[in-house]
Structures
1.
Amino acid sequence: MKDAAVGLRAHSGWAALVAVAGDGASVEVVDRRRVEMADPRRPLSKRPYHEAEDLPLEKATSLIDRNSKDASAMAGRALKDVMAGLREKGYRPVGSALLLASGRPQPKLDAILASHALIHAAVGEHFRVALREASQSCGLEVTGIREAELLERAQRVLEQPAAQLQATVTSLGRALGPPWTQDQKMAALAAWLVLARADTPRRG
């Protein structure tokens, strides 16, 4: 069985998912999809902290908790479907890569709701946490990678120059057709790093 890994890049209410298979030297895309994490019947669930902004703290906390559970459950169902599909195709899932923002700790909820900038940051973290919990519920080890450090880390781990890595990742999506935007490219590269780490003992 070939190893496979999943890369995830979160947005408000959804995430780009790309699964790649192979090893530290080369990979291929074996799944690509959009993971929904917001209830379409509740449009504001895409922006849970905005929805809670004007509520009393107790009600805001309850609302955020409800949205967190819903987002994790939706992401979990999607990832379980991905894992089942990979195994049916003969791939062995070895981990997931979760793209992160700055990585700064979140303040308490009352401080978040008092700041428009913090609300925006908290929404992103809200859905990244859901993806992390979903990955763990599927038995996947999660590797967090800051977006700003992704390319530099890939150059070091994969031992390839930036231009070559970017060209390779771009070519991965050529046969698939759209969408193959920055979301998918970054998710694929992050997943490749997980594969490279999983492959190291066998290569060494």
2.
Amino acid sequence: MGEMARASLARGGRVVGVIPKMLVERKLALRTATELIVTADMHERKATMARRADAFIALPGGFGTFEEIAEAIAFRQLDLHAKPCVLVNTNDYYAPLIEQFERAFRLHFAREAHRRTYAVARSALEALELVEREIRGG
């Protein structure tokens, strides 16, 4: 996340960092962010990001990324939000996770109607196009 934020700032982009106090204390905060929001803990961090987000896009990442996108998809399934959720499947990074989702559909652990709770993109640009299209209703 840090590399992406720094690259965005270097190109004149706006970066909002949302970080729990414990990570600030570990000196992991990007102090050059356009806006830096410090939260009490990880739960408050996720709630803050969810409130402020127009969409949820998961680039390849680790356990935190898996957990955050799974929560966003599950909350959409429960109609707690209607924001787009997109997995950016660069170099088939998310192929095993997507296959697990497909397995859940095949074995009837997930309803077919919930296929639309997430989308898969091959690139970040395609993810943005998917989000834009969904937000516009097309």
3.
Amino acid sequence: MTVLSAEKATERVSIDTSYPTLRGPSGDKFQFSLDVRNDTGQDAVFNFRAMAPPGWETSFKPAYESKQIS
């Protein structure tokens, strides 16, 4: 995972996950969560982008909701 920011305060934005590596059989569905913490003291907008191999489907959803984030 790469974090890019136009701000110089990137050391105060962190991303954590419980599962940094997931492995499993072909065809399985993988889900994991990301926790984004903004300690800059200012409101911020975060854009997520997934780059996956051809044929893979990726999406982002808020925790405990079925809506996808675009």
